[in-house]
Amino acid sequence: MTDNQKKHISKFLSLILRHQPEIIQLQLDDNGWADVDELISKSAKHGNAFSFEQLEEVVFTNDKQRFAFNEDASKIRANQGHSIHVELDLPVQEPPEFLYHGTVARYLDAIRKEGLKKMNRQHLHLSRDKQTAEKVGSRRGIPVILNICSGQMHRDGHAFYLSANGVWLTDHVPAQYINF
After folding, report:
1. What CATH number does the domain located at 3-78 have?
2. Which domain of life is it from (predicted)?
3. Does domain 99-179 sit in CATH 3.20.170.30?
C-alpha cells in the first residue's frame, strides 16, 4: 500500500471514528468502538474500500497511533480527538510537571484571556515533549509552543487523562497555568 493510500484511509477513519460516523451509517458504542467488519463493509459501499489487512497496516503504522483495535481486533476506535461524545474510560492520572501545546501567534491574545479551550473536541490535547507540540502547531503556520504547568494544575484539582497513544488530555487550561 502506498503512503497516499494509507493517508487517505487514515483521514477517512478520523472523520468516521472521531466526528461523523453517520456518514456511512456506522454505529459506535458508548466507548467509541465500531465493529471492524461493519466499518469495512459500510466504507466500501460509500466509495472508500479497504481490506482488513490495509486497515491493520494503517492502525499499526500510523505515526500518531490515532486508532486502536480491541484485543481480538473485532472492534476499532480512535484513541482521542472526538468531536462526538464517547466515553473513553480513561482513569485520571498525574501528569508530568510540564506539558506542551502547539499553536500559532494569531490565537495568543485569546489564549491569554481565556486560557486553552477544547473548542469542538471532547478534550484539549497536550504533548509530553516540545517536538510533538511544534509538529502540531506547525499545521496552522509558524508554531508557538506554550509551556503548561500541568503538575500545579493537577495539584489544584484539574483532571488529566492519558490516551492509549500517549496524548495528555484535559478539559481546559486556565491562563494562569500557561507560560507564554
Report:
1. 1.10.10.970
2. Bacteria
3. yes
Domain boundaries, the chain: 3-78, 99-179
Burial class (CB in 10 A: 0-12, 13-18, 19+), 98: middle
Q: pLDDT tens across 80-99, in order?
A: 999 999 998 999 999 999 99
**Do the beta carbons of residue 4 and residue 19 sit within 8 Å?**
no
- Between the alpha carbon of residue 14 and those of residues 62, 77, 175, the distances in Å are 12, 9, 30
Q: What is the largest CA-CA distance in the chain?
A: 50
**pLDDT tens digits, 170-179:** 999 999 999 9
Polymer length in residues for the chain: 180
Quick: pLDDT tens for 42-63.
999 999 999 999 999 999 998 8
For residue 49, how many other CB atoms are within 10 A of its CB? 12
Residue linked to cell 507540540: 133
CA nearest 127: which of 119, 138, 111, 141? 138
Using alpha carbons, list the distances in angstroms from residue 56 to 14, 15, 51, 69, 93: 15, 17, 9, 9, 29
